[in-house]
Design brief:
Length: about 375
């Protein structure tokens, strides 16, 4: 039985470290302190621990433990970075109340990391398992996943559990995403010269109407059995020079959530179709586009040994509440799958990811740790 007080102590230590992603929030501290904490923890537990610098103040931390018998290598993956703390009171002062631990990153995803670290301590004492356990805790998942991308250049595994919050469900699928920027071009002129000016913002209004129509069309397509429908939305818009002038340019950033089988070229084709249609309707309309960052969806078959064994271990811990599920957010599991490593998500529950009040259920963290130990004990089978 995992000690609840040990779970609380380790998680409190993690939450107390500021690890805001500086690529997402200028001035964020990055992952260096978190990575060094994890490195020291794993080394003290008996793991072959390593630090990897992937940029200024940006680090991965990994630890490898070999069992007494040969068997597969399991990766326990998590991200060290968090989003910002706007609107939060004392975000790095962990507070325990009614079985919940509050603080930035408690749920997303230091709760899952704490579960893995406490499980690691337990496993290292006897090493009575077959195979290898690789704990891979990475930078930059909240932005462009540089940590996992760098880690995969030199690290491999036979399967992976990504410790994102799943409310103790074994999550086998989530959507991907793609970003694009559309720019409409008008003609700058004095606000009184309607005969000379071309309104780039009004042109963008036509694009927005087409984005809305695309969203409706996506919602009418046959649904994916797990993830239902893809989606598209406008995220950011800017344009114009000053109040008394016709705007010369307008820029719109959009996001497309992708289903399995879709990728960045899916959104690119949709954007081109919108621009071509609007240009054909009005030769005065001018627009261009630029594709941004993208990542594919995750879909791991329920029949895999990884998914089935993890569900069995979860059922041992929580009985009939154990089930397969999906999650709406993107994770590094998709990158692992793309690299040929079957991956699922499994972690504790709580509330407030990316919000001003975030907490994780401490009992879920304890259960998650016990499930990981049980999984690893039976991994070779």
């Amino acid at each position: 039985m995992i000690d609840a007080e040990r779970i609380t102590a380790v998680l409190s230590g993690l939450v107390s470290i500021e690890s805001v992603n500086p690529s997402l929030v200028p001035g964020g501290g990055g992952e260096e302190r978190m990575a060094k904490y994890v490195y020291a923890f794993l080394a003290a537990a008996g793991f072959d621990a390593r630090l990897e610098r992937i940029g200024e103040g940006r680090f991965n931390a990994t630890g490898l433990l070999k069992g007494l018998r040969s068997g597969p290598r399991l990766m326990l993956n998590g991200h060290l970075d968090t989003v910002g703390v706007s609107g939060m009171e004392r975000p790095f002062l962990p507070r325990v109340e009614n079985g919940r631990l509050y603080g930035r990153g408690a749920l997303d995803m230091k709760g899952g990391i704490a579960a893995a670290l406490v499980a690691a301590e337990h496993l290292a004492k006897q090493r009575d398992f077959a195979g290898e356990v690789l704990i891979a805790l990475v930078a930059d998942e909240e932005m462009e996943s540089r940590g996992t991308r760098e880690m995969l250049k030199q690290t491999r595994a036979d399967m992976a559990i990504v410790l994102e919050p799943t409310w103790l469900e074994v999550a086998t699928a989530h959507k991907g995403f793609a970003w694009a920027e559309i720019e409409t071009r008008g003609r700058a002129a004095h606000g009184s010269r309607a005969d000379e000016g071309r309104d780039a913002i009004a042109f963008m209004g036509r694009v927005l109407h087409q984005i809305e129509a695309l969203q409706f069309e996506l919602s009418q397509r046959p649904a994916h059995p797990l993830l239902r429908h893809g989606s598209v939305h406008a995220s950011l818009i800017s344009g114009g020079q000053e109040l008394s002038s016709y705007p010369e340019t307008c820029k719109l950033s959009i996001e497309r959530r992708l289903l399995p089988g879709e990728d960045a070229t899916t959104l690119e084709a949709e954007v081109i179709a919108i621009i071509v249609q609007l240009t054909a309707h009005d030769p005065a309309f001018h627009a261009g586009y630029k594709m941004g960052y993208s990542a594919r969806a995750l879909e791991t078959p329920l029949q895999t040994c990884l998914a089935q064994h993890l569900l069995e271990c979860t059922r041992t811990a929580i009985g009939s509440r154990a089930r397969f599920g999906t999650q709406p957010f993107w994770t590094d599991a998709a990158l692992l799958q793309e690299a040929g490593i079957p991956a699922v998500l499994f972690g504790p529950g709580g509330a407030g990811m990316h919000s001003a009040v975030e907490y994780v259920n401490l009992e879920d963290v304890r259960i998650c740790s016990e499930v990981l130990i049980d999984f690893i004990a039976g991994m070779a089978g």
